[in-house]
User: Fold Fibroin P25 from Hyphantria cunea.
Amino acid sequence: MLLKGLLILLGAHYCYADLSNIIRPCKLNHYKCIGENLAANSYCKVKENGFLPSKYVQESFHYDTPYFNASYIDHNLIIRNQDKCYVSDFFVNTRTGRAVFCMDCPNLDFESDRTMIQHRTCQEDSYYEYHFRGVYPMIRITINLPSATHMDLCSASIFTDVSELPKLHINPKNKPTANYLSKDFSHLYIYERENGHARGPGLAYKFIDSLICDYGCPMPK
Ligand SMILES: *[C@@H]1O[C@H](CO)[C@@H](O)[C@H](O)[C@H]1NC(C)=O
Assistant:
């Protein structure tokens, strides 16, 4: 009986100690405070009165979806609603020495003239063209900074969770594309994970550089 009580106590103590290693230095909507913390541990320039437009255009963006043996190029990519992203966590773990920055983006909206490139072993690539628009109810981006004392965004690990599948509008630009494009969306969640993996870093850099602290990391193209 005594032993059991002791174990529970030890367990409780451990749990408590673990929680107290987590430090949140800033209110999550206090971007200046977060920027100052990042700047104190890296080379970024704190953004005062930062601005991110509700809509902007990126000339092109190339990404691969290895599972599908395909590559894509978005031309004239219009990104809407990135100004609605917000910081959903920022903490340091004093025990592990790590720092984590998390952002949530509701209703991100992408529109582009898209080229899909289908690869096949020892064959020429096939090209397909369509107009694309997709609205993503929720995309969550988790950034593990290299360490609590070295918060360099450009070498951070960035994980993108497409936590709700998008609503898609796809208009093929020609007959072969219309014939080729799959009407089977049962693997959409795999495609969107690969797609999100490619887009996450650019979205994170744009958001943090514009609103919190400017790192000037090279944008993926
Ligand atoms: C990708 O290519 C490999 C090798 O040709 C093939 O086995 C696989 O089925 C392809 N993947 C898809 C999703 O079509």
Observations:
- The pocket of 2-acetamido-2-deoxy-beta-D-glucopyranose is lined by residues 67-69, 121 (CB under 6 Å).
- The mean pLDDT is 91.
